[in-house]
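[job 0412] stage=complex_fold ligand=iron/sulfur cluster status=START
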Amino acid sequence: MIKHEIRDKNGGTRTISLSPLKAIRYQCLECMGFSPSQVVDCTSPLCSLFPYRLGKDESRKGTGGQGNAEALLKYRSRQGKKDQEAI
Ligand code: SF4
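[job 0412] stage=complex_fold status=DONE, emitting structure tokens
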């Protein structure tokens, strides 16, 4: 994440933390007059930002959120030992 100054819908500017996907999302909002529904309904599928206009990477859908169960169990085990050592 980087901090960057962008235009806002009131004609001013604001500084926000941006990831690459957020940057695309804000660009699309600005492109469509800050109307989220118009970004959804964008009619320019040949625009290079089109697949990312909703702030999500559809190619990564379903990868994540599950976590690594084995790593979680190891972490909890280590934490349990630390808790017992502290007693
Ligand atoms: S994808 Fe659509 S809304 Fe986003 S920059 Fe391109 S034309 Fe504008």
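The chain has three helices and two strands.
[job 0412] exit 0
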